[in-house]
């Protein structure tokens, strides 16, 4: 049978790694496997190298300990055109001057200063954003680790200011009453006293034993603040405001300011939720007392006292009692409280008096955790949820922030929603948006004129109108059911948002027809089987690794780098650190190891000078930065390779042989150096190649050729010394290589040589086979 001969060129590898195709329909520009190889924009393949830049840090081992929360952020608006790299290592923030005006750059010696956040932040992975030259930080902590902002005061001076987000209580308490239920009043009274001198005891009479506002022992006192005392009196007699009262035992004195009835059978440990609700619905102490003692009934949760005003604008309990309020709840929200406190003991009114403590105890709210945050529409946005273990369903947003940040804690409307007049929302108000379908909000992201909300079960868009966000003018819509596994994996790339989910890596980009964001799985048809574990691979991320993945975008190379390793609350396995590389322009994936020389904990893009990876070494007590521009080879020779797709020439029936394979490399040698008394090339290259026939994956199948060196200089020159001029001439090195074996398909494996570089431009093969090939 006649032999057929065919020649084929290969010089496009931009498809990168592909694990989703079968061995019979593989894209020709893709690779079966790749490790520690850089795929350039031009399509050439080169060995990955790195360099390390040392950095200064103090007290690293103390702060790092076993609590391994490490993070990076580029603070671009620190004022005076300064840009800082912020490095979080456990509970310490380190600051490095990036000096973006410099033409060349190394982090070394650019350490500026640091802030010790305190042990409450040891396990907090901070979320960063910035506005008004301030760096805003949220931590997922409670009232002991609140959000804060950083200011750059002097060249090496940074200050930290805590704040405690407040919201209005639009929920109220579950008091066990029906909305329209009124109950007979049989309780006692409270006195709130101003200007009190001293403290009343728990058992004494006031104003003696025969006169004044109350008689008897068993008096209870509850502190509300530094200048106000509350006294429980066992009487329902209406009392005169403004009277001076004196404790018979303690001789403490005060001025009677208001009188509040106490419902039910109150004792000092009881929780009077109904009374709290009435105050939150706008009932003042005077009106509440007057109605209760006049009608001998408690107001219901549907009653609004302002509807009981007469023609003289005075409150008339009889007039109010004639109104039909139905079964709808009265407006709520007069009370506001710190969401981190988690108890209504912190609830207060805008007159500053926390008398809500004194009305029978206050119900627990179960405190919020504030984790994710971003800045959008001139406001700070934060995700919050109730304990235990919840970061979400609610998104808090502040009022439009002032330059002095005095309102950074105000996540509420300025006007009282229970007031008779001036109760409207204002355009600059703060508030709370609840996304009931969300489970656990991992991240918030400023995008165009809205905010993206990344939950574990999907992504939502809080979308403003063309005129901008206001509390009265926004919409919430779900973009995708693909939730985010890691907040740090979210990367913004030239108008798109890319992040890790359970099912794949998702890109959100505007639909050219509708303008709305749509979701695309960029791993589909590429490495989805690897990412999800359907196909076992060295770089398949585990569930824990997906939770801790971090990402950074190199705007020059147009590549996203995602690092991942096993990570728990207290430890990270640096020996298993891996990096996934996604070439945005080519849509290709490749992988790098970090385990052989360093463990990485984050990355940042220094605008015009490329990507930097953060390395925190516990044993060496150092911080350093890794770049991909150095001269140290990444990975051992056994872990620096790539394998081509399975070439079958469109025919899986006939056997073929690759008579010759011509490999073409970019020459790397550029001079001479003296080593061990001899003279050798500087920057030498070397590459080994072997053929794998018949889709085999192990040498025991006896279908693999032996490995041979395929980078060989075509002419030999023996220099007289290292100073000899280098004028080799050839810039492309071509070698002709005989390949043993035969089969229906062939894949070539190229491996690095110890301590040598290589840059492969392409290869060509001469195939022979029986009959038509």
Key attributes of the depicted protein:
773 residues; mainly beta; Jelly Rolls; six-stranded antiparallel sheet; six-stranded mixed sheet; 6 helices; 49 strands
Q: Per DSSP, what share of the residues sits in E-state strands of 2 or more residues? A: 35-45%
Q: What name does CATH use for the topology of the domain at 3-46 and 637-770?
A: Jelly Rolls
Whole-angstrom Rg = 36 Å
End-to-end separation: 12 Å
Could you give a short account of the major beta sheet?
Answer: 6 strands, antiparallel
What structural category arises from helix and sheet content?
Answer: mainly beta
Rounded average pLDDT: 82
CATH top level assignment of the domain at 3-46 and 637-770 = Mainly Beta
Extended strand count: 49
Name the CATH architecture of the domain at 3-46 and 637-770: Sandwich
Percent range for helical residues? under 10%
SSE inventory with pairings:
Elements: E1 3-10, E2 16-17, E3 30-35, E4 37-39, E5 45-47, E6 49-55, H1 60-64, E7 70-75, E8 84-89, E9 92-97, E10 111-116, E11 127-131, E12 134-138, E13 148-154, E14 157-162, E15 166-168, E16 188-197, E17 220-225, E18 228-233, E19 244-246, E20 253-262, H2 273-280, H3 285-295, H4 317-321, E21 336-338, E22 368-376, E23 379-386, E24 394-397, E25 431-434, E26 441-447, E27 450-455, E28 458-464, E29 474-480, E30 491-493, E31 496-500, E32 505-510, E33 517-521, H5 528-532, H6 543-548, E34 550-554, E35 559-564, E36 578-583, E37 588-593, E38 600-605, E39 611-617, E40 622-633, E41 641-644, E42 656-666, E43 671-675, E44 678-682, E45 687-693, E46 708-709, E47 732-738, E48 746-752, E49 759-770
